[in-house]
Amino acid sequence: MEDANQTLVSEFIFQGLCASRELQIFLLLPFATLYLMTVVGNLFIVILIITDHHLHSPMYFLLANLSFVDFCLSSVNTPKLITDLLKHNKTISFGGCMSQILGVHFFGGGEMVLLVTMAYDRYVAICRPLHYTSIMDGQKCIWLVLISWIIGFVHAISQLILILELPFCGPRVIDSFFCDIPLVMKLACTDTDTLGIVIKADSGVLATTCFILLLISYTYILLTVQLHSKDGSSKALSTCTSHIIVVVLFFGPIIFIYLWPVNITWVDKFLAVFYTVITPLLNPAIYTLRNKDIKNAIKKLINHT
Of 54, 59, 243, 297, whose CB neighbour count within 10 A is largest? Predict the structure, then answer.
């Protein structure tokens, strides 16, 4: 009977960002431009790091992976958001909805762990500089990135399996522009209170663990920079500042969306846009503007062309 119920809902309907048709048309160009800049910016950093041998170090290897993850994360929901701005009926198939959930949690969870890996890299570089090359060798870097992808995948699959168990037999309107787990759960034809706690605990454990590790790492790094010699400390501090800004931009919306007790629809939508559209664009901009090696590589590329 449960399987029969599930087949009754073959698609969901998005209410979108806003009700105003004029505002939706107005937002089309800005969102399309932002997405294009995100794709170009992140892929440019990946290609730059691959092609410039001066950037073949653990820090830039991890940065290239972060840019690729940001490109993937923005591509899960943003193209659908842009095309839906032109449509009156914003529908998504059941399979498409589940794919969005899988994609957001796979790339989002992977990015959390990758940010911790980048913090570990900076910790070793600043706090144990003499052992850096032996600790952060190429093989370890590859393994650390693989682990971040594996943890992201396990996290996403665990969330998806729980959602797929739910019966959907009637309501199908989602007051958002993408399939967010809390909003999809509201449409289930059963009590989801217990499941909601389990899903929040799953996401909460991963996010909180990563955030605490990041806080400890960067606090220790900043204290080390402050207490020890000033030689090279300004460069280390500049690099860490870039990392900290990215961490705040990434975790800020997540904390508000999933841990804030009061749900205000327009606030949730704004934070979701920030998380899926703005943050993946800001990451390459922050690293490019604050990093001398990246800027020098860009200048060299421009001079060659």
Answer: 243
